[in-house]
Amino acid sequence: MPEMNGHQVAYEMRRLRPDTPVVMFSGSEIPEETRQLVDAVVHKAEVPNELLPTVTRLCHRSSPD
Q1: Residue 38, number of CB atoms within 10 A of its CB
Q2: Where are the chain's structural domains?
Q3: Whole-model pTM?
Q4: For residue 56, is pLDDT > 90?
């Protein structure tokens, strides 16, 4: 991302759309202050196995009862 790093994107998402679930994809370790801004972290090596279950879990959590 040429203009923002992952932390900045997560911060802006929380600021602009606080109810929107945020999933961060990373190939490296995520600092704790960034982890606090996101709902889930999926490591790039785990994307095929973890992406669908993570998104499904967050969608169910966000849906009204």
Answers
A1: 20
A2: 6-62
A3: 0.69
A4: no
